[in-house]
């Protein structure tokens, strides 16, 4: 399984990514071993996730969400 996830950073910005293990990935982000973007914005908090059976579908959804503005991402998170 693959998971699309959205993190809220300390500065209130949002980070979107995919992984096979959400718990491990959030820990990586919070210890500075995750994405370059989140290294200076710790701690991060998981605020949204979706599950996919294959990587391609997760990547397509990730690209879609990354193209959205903040307001649209916040609407998704608050559902």
Descriptive key words:
79 residues, alpha+beta, GIY-YIG endonuclease, three-stranded antiparallel beta sheet, 42% helix, 27% strand, globular
Write up what this structure looks like.
- This protein has a 3-stranded antiparallel beta sheet with strand order 2-1-3, with helices on both faces.
- The protein has 4 helices and 3 strands; from the N terminus they run ββααβαα.
- It is globular.
- Helices cover 42% and strands 27% of the residues.
- It has a single domain, classed as 3-Layer(aba) Sandwich (GIY-YIG endonuclease).
- With 79 residues, the chain is α+β, with helices and mostly antiparallel strands.
- It has helices at residues 22-30, 36-39, 55-66, 70-77, and strands at 2-8, 14-19, 45-52.
- The mean pLDDT is 96.
